[in-house]
Structures are given as C-alpha cells and as structure tokens.
Amino acid sequence: MFFKKRVFLALLLGVLFLFFLSQKNKHSSLISLQAGWVDRAAMSLIAPVLNSVNRLWFFTKDTWNHYIALVKINRENQLFHDKLKTQELYILSLEEKLKVQRQAQPKESQFTSLGYEGIMARVIGYDPFSQVQAIMISVGSKNGVGLDQPVITSDGLVGRVIRVYGHSSQVLLVVDNHFAVDVIDHETRVRGLLVGSGTKAGLGSLPLMSHLEFLGLGQSMYEGDLLVTSGLNGVYPPSIPVGNLVRLKSSKENQLAVLPSVDFSTLSHVFVITKMNLNEKNKVTP
Amino acid sequence: MKVVFFLLWALILLFFQVGFRFQLGNFVVNFDFLTTMVIYVGFTLPLFSGLITVLGVSILMSAFSIIPQEMIILVNLIIFVSIRFLIEQIYSEAYLTKSIWVFLFSLLSLYLRSEDRINLLSIFSQALVNGILSFPLFIVWDKTFFIWLKILSIKRADLTGADFFQAKNTHRRFVKW
Predict the structure, then answer these.
(1) Which range (A35-44, A125-134, A152-161, B65-74) has the least confidence?
(2) CA distance linking residue B41 with residue B54, whole number of Å
(3) Which helix (H) or strand (E) holds A170?
(4) β-strand A226-229 against A191-196: which pairing, if any?
C-alpha cells in the first residue's frame, strides 16, 4: 500500500515536471506575459480578497497615522507653538529694549563717529506758549554751546540754538515759522529752502510740519522724497535728514509740505554740534 | 503783598507751563496757567497793583519764551485793561461764568500773540483747556489769597467807643495847657 502511494506520488511529480517543462519550452523565459486559465482562475479568486485585505490594511494604517497618531503630533505642535510664541516675545522685547536705548540715551559716539564734535543734552522744557515751537535743553555756554549751533538726533535735524544761558539753551525747532534751512532732495538733487509751519505757508492747521520755498521752475520732486541738509549755508552740516515730502489735500497749488524726520512729541535727548570736523570728501563748497 | 502772592504762584505754575506740552494730533496744547492768572488778576486786583502784577508775570513768561518781551507785556496788559474796563458788565461770583470769560479772553490773548502762527484749531483748543483749568484754579487762588491776606495784612484793634473815650482822656492828661 505504502509502495503504491509512493509510486503514485512519484508519477504525479513526474507529470507535473513534464508539464512544467512543456510550458517552459513554449516560452523562452520564466516570465509569462500571458496569463493562463489557471492563473486567471486563481487570480479571480484571490484578487478580490487581496484587494479587500489591502484596503482594510491601508484604511487601518491611514486611520492610525492621521487620527490616533496625531494626538502625539498635536501635543508636539502645541509645544512648538508655545516655544515660537516665547521666542517671538523675546525678540520683541529685545527690539523694544534696543529702540528705547537708542531713543532715550543716544551716545555721543554715535555722532562723533560722523565727524561732529558736540555734547548730548536733555530736553528740559518748552516755550511757555504752545504756538511757539521751541525747546529748552540742559546745556549752555558753560558746556561750550554757542548761538546758531545745529541740534540733531539720530533721526535727523531738530533745530538750532537761538538763546544761550549758563547751563541751559533754547532751541528753535525746524517746524517753527521762523526757522529756515537750505535742503536738497536726496533722490533728484533739487535744492530748496525749507521753512517751518505758518499761515503764510498754508499750513495753519498743521503746526508740526514744514514746507519748501524758492524752488526753481521745472524742477521735479516726488512724494516721499527724503530731504537732507545741503550744507551750503555753513551753519548745518550736509546730509542730515530733515523730512519727507508729503502731498496735502488742503495745501495750495504747488505747495510742498514736509513731514519732519524727528518726532518732536517724544523728543527727550538731543546732540548739539559745537564743531564740525568734516572729512574733505564731506565738505561742500558753494 | 498782593503782588508777591501772585508772583509766587506764577513761579510755581511756570514750572508746569514750561515742563509739559501735549500733542493732540496736529495741534499742541500746554498748561497756559499764566495767561489764566492775568485774567484772574483782572477780576481780582485793583488797577495799580494789578498792573504791577501783570508786568511781573509777563517778565517771568518772557524769560522762557522766544516771543519778544514787549509783545508778551503788551498783550497781557491789553487783556488786563480790557477786563478792568468791562468789569462792571462781566463780573460774576460764579466760577462757571468766570471760566467762560477765561475761554474768551484766552482766545483774544492767543490771537494777539500768534503772529504768523495763527492756527484756529490750536488756539481754540488751548483756550478751551485754559477755560477748563481756570475752574479749579480760581477756587484755589480765591482760598489761598484769602489765607494770604489774613496772615500778612496789618492787624487792626477792635476799638469801641469806651476805648476812644479812654484814649481821649489819657491824651488829655498829657496835654499841657
């Protein structure tokens, strides 16, 4: 019985081997591009099952990755979000500190590096009348301050010294109607005379602005242009920002208003230029 | 003594007037206490002592201002004399009425002093601030002025008819016939 079974199995193996060889002889390689009926039958049975299993697998994987595993990611995201906020706050506080330091206590070295000799001063008061744009500063003749000396900040021109006492001085601001300075357009190089606010300038309702006068015919300037001191009158050093050109709806025809570079409402420290040691290249001759 | 009282107040208030300035949009206002004081002096003091006080206050103001001294003195004197001239028509005990007069006289004062700096909105807002501030200021000045006069004025004895009779008799005693 056992022998018969072994013979039967050997014969079956032989048949299968011959069938295999016959199939192999049909095609030159082991890779068949045409499926046989057996393959098709097997595939039609297995493929739907495989497809379903595969779908189920991907569905489970997808659910896990996008929903269950996201709990961790969400936590991580929250952590990064918090860290980012903290960093943003830190950067903001540093920027604020820097601004306050620059604004509140500008150092003399800032200005001396530009070739100006002078002295830092605190703004200690204003003119008793609000219509007059003048300030009082904490340095006077005892500190080397003299008449008509220019006063600046890191933002630009503030004005000039018009009265000197022992330990204090009065400074006429660029926005007062008695103030005038020769300026030049930084972009177009057009020259003009910048005069403070006033009714003659049509700026009666804007006491903290200046305007331009004595412009040549046909000269073009554009809104937003930066005006700097020309240095031609000898009182003010060249290239100090004074203000930007703005167009006013209410202004007269051909009226050019100038918004000062310095914010006078927050002015606390100024630099009085007592001597200008300009380099040869910075010197301007009329 | 009245003049000294106002000059002392002017010195104290000048510190606030010079030390603070507020920028509200396009216009600037400050505590214009001394203009309010000139108006108060007009309401309170007689002509001669009033003139001296106004002169003193004006000189104090001009020490800190770039406006010419003559201009400040002249404008303040115009305000003072105008009030003295109209005092019978405008005088009132009510502080609110006085505040309205402060507002109007401030407008005049600011207009006269403005030169080319006339900015109606700024002048109006400054006068309004003066009018509002004058309300508590007038109360404080009234109270302190009363105390000042009480402390520093020459004390008079309350003499009666009997005292006068006695004095007369005493006097008679030393009269040599």
Answers:
(1) A35-44
(2) 8
(3) strand A169-173
(4) unpaired
- The partner residue sitting opposite A131, judged by closest CB among B18, B19, B122, is B122
Candidates A123, A131, A267: best to mutate against B (most CBs of B within 10 A) is A131
Please list every residue in chain B whose beta carbon sits closer than 8 Å to the beta carbon of residue A268. none
Q: Which fold has domain A120-283?
A: Thrombin, subunit H (2.40.10)
Q: What are phi and psi of A183, to 5 degrees?
A: -125, 165
| A contact test, residue of B28, B62, B108, B114 with most A CBs within 10 A | B28
Mean pLDDT by 10 residues, chain B (177 residues): 87 86 77 91 90 91 85 90 88 89 91 72 86 92 88 69 68 54
Domain ranges within chain A, ordered by starting residue: 38-113, 120-283
| Structure-block tokens of residue B121 | 């909105």
DSSP β-bridge partners for residue A116: A276
C-beta atoms of A126 and B123 within 8 A: no
By residue count, chain B amounts to 177
Would the CB atoms of B30 and A131 count as touching at under 8 Å?
no
CA distance A117 to B133: 44
Nearest partner of B58 among B43, B49, B71, B44, judged by Cα: B71
Q: Which DSSP symbol is given to A68?
A: I
Tell me whether residue A74 is exposed, middle or buried, using C-beta atoms within 10 angstroms of its C-beta: 0 to 12, 13 to 18, 19 or more: exposed
pLDDT for the residue numbered A279: 56
How far apart CA A230 and CA A233 sit, in angstroms, is 8
With beta carbons under 8 A apart, name residues in chain A contacting B117.
131-132, 176-177, 197-199, 207
pLDDT at A30: 46
Report chain A residues whose CB lies below 8 A from the CB of B119. Answer: 131, 199, 204-207
> Quick one: which of B91, B67, B74 has its CA closest to B38?
B74
